[in-house]
Amino acid sequence: xxxxxxxxxxxxxxxxxxxxxxxxxxxxxxxxxxxxxxxxxxxxxxxxxxxxxxxxxxxxxxxxxxxxxxxxxxxxxxxxxxxxxxxxxxxxxxxxxxxxxxxxxxxxxxxxxxxxxxxxxxxxxxxxxxxxxxxxxxxxxxxxxxxxxxxxxxxxxxxxxxxxxxxxxxxxxxxxxxxxxxxxxxxxxxxxxxxxxxxxxxxxxxxxxxxxxxxxxxxxxxxxxxxxxxxxxxxxxxxxxxxxxxxxxxxxxxxxxxxxxxxxxxxxxxxxxxxxxxxxxxxxxxxxxxxxxxxxxxxxxxxxxxxxxxxxxxxxxxxxxxxxxxxxxxxxxxxxxxxxxxxxxxxxxxxxxxxxxxxxxxxxxxxxxxxxxxxxxxxxxxxxxxxxxxxxxxxxxxxxx
Amino acid sequence: xxxxxxxxxxxxxxxxxxxxxxxxxxxxxxxxxxxxxxxxxxxxxxxxxxxxxxxxxxxxxxxxxxxxxxxxxxxxxxxxxxxxxxxxxxxxxxxxxxxxxxxxxxxxxxxxxxxxxxxxxxxxxxxxxxxxxxxxxxxxxxxxxxxxxxxxxxxxxxxxxxxxxxxxxxxxxxxxxxxxxxxxxxxxxxxxxxxxxxxxxxxxxxxxxxxxxxxxxxxxxxxxxxxxxxxxxxxxxxxxxxxxxxxxxxxxxxxxxxxxxxxxxxxxxxxxxxxxxxxxxxxxxxxxxxxxxxxxxxxxxxxxxxxxxxxxxxxxxxxxxxxxxxxxxxxxxxxxxxxxxxxxxxxxxxxxxxxxxxxxxxxxxxxxxxxxxxxxxxxxxxxxxxxxxxxxxxxxxxxxxxxxxxxxxxxxxxxxxxxxxxxxxxxxxxxxxxxxxxxxxxxxxxxxxxxxxxxxxxxxxxxxxxxxxxxxxxxxxxxxxxxxxxxxxxxxxxxxxxxxxxxxxxxxxxxxxxxxxxxxxxx
Lengths: 401, 523
Prior knowledge:
Radius of gyration of chain A: 26 Å
CATH superfamily of the largest domain in chain A: Nucleotide-binding domain of ferredoxin-NADP reductase (FNR) module
Number of domains of chain B: 3
Largest sheet of chain A: 6 strands, antiparallel
Radius of gyration of chain B: 23 Å
CATH topology of the largest domain in chain B: FAD/NAD(P)-binding domain
Number of helices of chain B: 20
Distance between the termini of chain A: 61 Å
Number of helices of chain A: 10
Helix content of chain A: 10-25%
Structural class of chain B: alpha/beta
CATH topology of the largest domain in chain A: Rossmann fold
Shape of chain B: globular
Strand order of the largest sheet of chain A: 4-3-6-1-2-5
CATH architecture of the largest domain in chain A: 3-Layer(aba) Sandwich
Number of strands of chain B: 18
Structural class of chain A: alpha/beta
Strand content of chain B: 15-25%
CATH architecture of the largest domain in chain B: 3-Layer(bba) Sandwich
Order of helices and strands of chain A: HHEEEEHEHEEHEHEEHEHEEEHEEHEEE
Helix content of chain B: 25-40%
Oligomer: heterodimer
CATH class of the largest domain in chain A: Alpha Beta
Number of strands of chain A: 19
């Protein structure tokens, strides 16, 4: 026992004992109002938004297969704040089934407050179930529901170099239009060199606009188009975004950050190119590729599973229902087909929003996928948007259906 | 609309909120035989015990160290002697509730670098080593340190008695534990001054204020003393794979015990009948009834948003009117593309500042400015390679006054403000540790009070419940616990309740509440 005293034996003991009635007095000194105000919560809502209903204000045909939809919030709603490079998650009902698609925002962040709109630019895929639906059904006046913005494909001053090289493929140009426009109203990076790979001259999205942005940028923005097709009258760069082309158009490749956005096949190619150029991971940012059209084309996909089907026992709350799933489709798609879609966002395995618990069964992920937590991998918590079933599955869906 | 039914109409207990308080209570209730529904507004359980992924890095979101997860007194273990009982949280979570987890102990308690005093020392675990380290730092203070640790031990013992006895005998405490009684009413500053430590020693001992974030004039001594004793003597621990792994392991156990877990399931309000809470109404509209409801949300939120106004007794209103919210964090997460060792990062937890004048610091952090005190962790130093081959991550966590960020609520300036606060932390860390980390940043993420509000519904971004002043510390709350159960059919769990914040505290209070509730409704 110690002999430490603060103000003397008796006074010290009284100090403690007095705390007991002291608490009573303290409580009694309180008023009857409890302050529930929360400015931080209001701010959070401003930063991150929630579900929004927005009306299509106008539609611009960018190329034969690409349209830009300008959205304005339906009365009383608020379009989200976002960072240039982020995406929204569009909620669709097609043939009575719910599903989602992530679309990069192609307008600038300030356009929301300054002009009251937000734009997404969508390329119609040849056999695209969803894009075909959008083509046929989204008209001026159609109300589109979405939430967001989400995503990590945005410039971070501490991490990224002042000069960003954009490696864009096809409709992967959309976030860079947002970034470029943002730069002209005070946004970063300091410099942006866009290398835009397309197959044909007619497929270049935003060509006039990008040229105009470059012209107005005091040399901060440069745009180069690289054509892979055989178009005869093209006088610009030809080929793919390979090491030689990048070196030729960028000059010194060191000391720059590389932002990559394009179709899935492009990523493997760019990885090799970056290796050739000796550009380490820290300088390469890759946008999530979103929905994969045909996973069987992935070199690592186990070919013996193509066309295989398995039983999927879906457990939701106190209910369960038995479904069929295909090895070459994600579990999320199988659920959506059956009409039991949970909410999803990135559809790339990155964000983890659809995370669910697979009590039984094994799944396959594309090896390059990032986003799973170590312990989730060990305990069989899965990301259904990117998980391909390799056996019968028992799945607890914890998100609301 | 899928037509699938999610909930039963009735459960024994509905737990609203799956932070570790809610989880522990649900585990215990299920173990006792209750039919339990555990609801969480986020898309997974765990509350602040969570992690997130950026690129190839999985970042620990909040946890620094676990307290009370040891296997006894470190000194005894090292000498091969009987080490006494395991830490309380380990006993409860692992041994009693059956959540199987692995934890690791850093080599030292912390590494403090206080430039005004030329202090750069690693504070070791274990009584004798600790005394020796203080003696080395400031010759002559070793003996005082021994005395200090004795006092801390006694405080811990009595607190454990107060917390574990169903009927607390105040007279017994008054008679048998005079030094506890003499010191329990004071602040840390008032007691520390009595030991005659050199200023250097006081500074080195003040580091863990970084966990509490308030001034030593406000923090009550027993709260501090118990923390000192438990960390220094029993060790601090980190989980094998971030705190998210704790939540996952708990979830598997909850499932094994038959608890129904639902996420993205926000409770909108509590249902009442007569003078009782009888269930919950979900944001999605369903009504679910229960014999008892537990709430892991902050009581202030329950009072102001989830219960009918006329339902709140006067005394409860007054209590939540006088209570102040505690602190709100700014956190910086860096994924570095080299292992810690190669970068020269050698300690798990760094405390870095000019000095630890806690009163002055508490004044500064009332504003959204560069934080004068750095708290930095690096898991790679404890579990090499845990982040991945060839990389590591650094976590910075700085506590501010709950209202500090209110000065900076500008969405267009948000990113740049965050960057400037973060740049300061990076510069300061590099300067004081002599390391170069800036050119190795592969991933970065920044969390502010707004982030904690977003994911965990933390009111005003506050993560520590209410300020633990001498009239409202763990002792006063525990002594008044039963009197302050204001609402029939509803109890609170989590860091805002009687055992206050921290994983170990909310586990033990959650278990206690579960047992009290089951004693009432179990038959």
